[in-house]
Amino acid sequence: MRPVVLEIHRIVDVIVSCVSLSQIVMKTISKLTSASRGKTWPQWLAAMIIHVLSLLVGLVSGWTSPFLAKLTGGSETLVISKDEASWVASLFSVTRPVGAVVAAVVVNKFGAKWAVLANGVPHALAWGCFFVRESVTSIYVSRLLSGFAVGMYYSTFPLFIGEVASPRIRGALVSLVAQGLAIGTLLGNVLGAYVGMTTFAGVGIVMTAIFFFGFLLFPDSPHYLVKVKRVADAEASMRFYNRREDVGEEMEELKRFVGSRRVSTRESVRQLGTPVNRKIVGMVSCVYVFMQLSGLYTISLYMEIILTDLKVDVVPPAVIVVAVGLVGVASGLMSMYTNDRAGRRTMLAISSAGVCVTLFLLGVNQLLLDLGYDPAVLQYLTISAIVLYQVFMCVGIIPIPSCLMSEMFPSQVKEVGTCLANVTSAVFAFITSKSYQPLVDATSQVFVFWAYSLVVLFMFVFTVVVLPETKGKSLQDIQEMMGKPRGDVSGRQTPTSRADPFDNSRREFPRQMK
Q1: 355 class by beta-carbon count within 10 Å (0-12 exposed, 13-18 middle, 19+ buried)
Q2: Considering only CA atoms, which of 369, 367, 358 is closest in space to residue 299?
Q3: Distances (CA, A) of 41 to 268, 387, 449
Q4: What is the block-wise mean pLDDT of the chain (514 residues), using blocks of 10 residues?
Q5: Among candidates 347, 380, 368, 423, which has minimal Cα distance to 171?
């Protein structure tokens, strides 16, 4: 009985810590967004609930590093081999494409709201595996279910945010949700070092329940309700998310955007063949490929090993990893402001340029060590490069792709288009995570760092030359912009730009004059 009570106390302590950190984050969010909240607080509230889902995805990622060390080092009652540990790490990526495909079908049949809500099911099952039996098989099944849930996550939350968010705060809402990944990963790394697998799983189940029952209270998005001809419900949903009674004009605009008939999944696939849709899918997929090839997962997974290889000892590498996680949280909060103020393309260009430079500096550092320079002199360069790498990643490369996914796809193909982009991202995530160590063994650490740096340089050029600016534009405006001749993708707003169904600002003054 006593061990059970101790486990319960540990879970409670962990939850209290999570709540305290969340309160700090939410206070910062409140200050950053006080000027733009107005009547959009239901949109912020929905994003905050989905933020809990992001925390779960982050916990799944943060679980790996501490528990693989424990399971292979004999710190847990269960001991696994290095080969089994490699499977634990890689199985996570195997089912992610499957989750993306299933999510596309659920979105098409039941809408983005229920697709997001369905994320809670595989998460609950994944954490529940640790209570059934403590074995390698249970861990394998849990990782497969977690990968499935992550695939659903990336294919659903951008669509829901895109359907309910005002153009003025769409980027901030996506950044708020994405911020949960950094916080969840940090919590996973810290908690995993001090609690057992069962306690960790208990925290995951509690957070899953908070997300599921909290998000269950929100109505479907007006986009989906119009698509299935539930116009009265769509009006009620629009009034809820915008806090306005008169939504007649917005409803007419939404009907024109969604179209007059519901499109099947098979027809959505056929419509991907049109030139405009091919261009959009190509742009978003390329951004995700560049994101994965920037070292997003490999640098974070191997960060402690990288710091050790670079002879950093002025501060313990494990402490630096935690500090870098905290820097990522702060940078993510900053991105909530910059994405809607400076714009998506501008922040992605700044982010990719910064990541390119920091990766190049890490390669230079390794080269100087190989040439025999004093590690004591170079380790501050290493720490600075790692910290700046995290800052630049979190202000652009991590949140911007999801933001683009939420707003660039037309209504008729967004489920299939999002699925394709997510599957592409999952495939390249698996390739980069599995190829890192073989590449280092076959070439050198310098080669890998500089290869990543070169890829991110291409991302910078792609961002500046190809990507359009979607800041402050309605979903209809974006589709009209994407249909313009090649080269006219500046994203400049014009006086004739159409009103967005969720943009309150454009109608405030005329309403007051009536």
Answers
A1: buried
A2: 358
A3: 33, 34, 43
A4: 50 50 47 50 88 90 77 73 74 84 86 91 92 84 91 87 81 82 83 83 92 91 82 81 67 67 67 81 88 81 78 81 83 81 88 93 88 81 89 88 81 79 83 78 87 93 89 76 55 43 43 36
A5: 347
- Output the pTM of the full model: 0.72
Residue 162's SS3 state is helix
Q: In this structure, what DSSP letter does residue 209 have?
A: H
- Give the burial class of 471: count Cβ atoms within 10 A of its Cβ; 0-12 exposed, 13-18 middle, 19 or more buried: buried
Asked if 142 contacts 85 with a C-beta cutoff of 8 angstroms, the reply is no
By the 10 Å C-beta count (0-12 exposed, 13-18 middle, 19+ buried), 264 is classed as exposed
Question: Which domains does the chain possess?
Answer: 8-22+35-218 (1.20.1250.20), 272-484 (1.20.1250.20)
Backbone angles phi and psi of 53, in degrees to 5: -60, -40
- Token pair recorded at residue 50: 């989905």
